[in-house]
Fold this sequence. Notes:
alpha+beta
Amino acid sequence: LKIASNKFLMKNEFLRCNVPTAKYRLISRLNEDDIVHVGFPNVLKIVSGSGSEFILVNHNNIELKTNFEKLRDAVLKSDDHNWFCEREMPKIGERTVIDTRREVLLEEFLKGEEYSCDFIIDNSVRIIRVVKKYNLAHIGFFRGFYLLNPASIRRFGIDMNTLKDTCVKIA
């Protein structure tokens, strides 16, 4: 659960397991090397949290600078000590702590449909839920959700065996 609730650790795990993921960097300030690595458009997001909160899309340096300051200010003002605190993590290089109040993810923006999947693996993979996310500008970025049932999953072109194989790789 420590990895699943931390987007930075989860993305590292995706890379370790050869699960495709957007380019990303963990940042506490804007740095040209990080921006060049990720490119535009990109997304700023908090490391922890859920429900697609605190996600800001940037198409250029001006938006990135403005949104970085906006995100940093919102996080510093938040009194949510579960999402925003120093968190211990498995050792990655020399790092063993992430300060989720000061560090955010800068991530490549991948155009397309976005889904999230909650699952459990015991003797087999059990899909708990699959959610399709919608970008609805009038209610905020990725604020629209559609909980998919098995028929909907097939209708959206998602192959359950491929989904389960991906879940196993991630776990």
